[in-house]
């Protein structure tokens, strides 16, 4: 019994003030942010529609969370998520024995910030990147579909990373 009490006391001391919190709880400074507007991101790349894919993925990511209500405009929101897609790169990463490309990697870099709707306070900002691979298809139409699917998956994963960083305050 004494040993169990000692173990409980030791755990209380070790975990008491170390900043432990449940994942996804978010920092206290986001109190009052319930309605969120996600603006169309700015595209500074030559890749068409990549900003639309990422914006839609961000909206979907926040819409799945019960703590946030998505609204269409900043005047209805407590906070606004905005940003820029700075870089989109595509390169070959795998080759066949005959030196033909068999797999591509795409990478995306974006700057995102979450601001109070009145513009007076930046709640979070960060630069986030992600990459995704996809296999080559000899049929050009199927290749385009595979690339578009990889872009959309890349944007879904990047949106999830952005959400996690915002609520975990990294």
UniProtKB/TrEMBL annotation:
It comes from Desulfuromonas thiophila. One of its GO terms (biological process) is Gram-negative-bacterium-type cell outer membrane assembly. This is Outer membrane lipoprotein LptE/RlpB (LPS assembly). InterPro entries: LPS_assembly_LptE (IPR007485). Keywords: Lipoprotein. One of its GO terms (cellular component) is outer membrane.
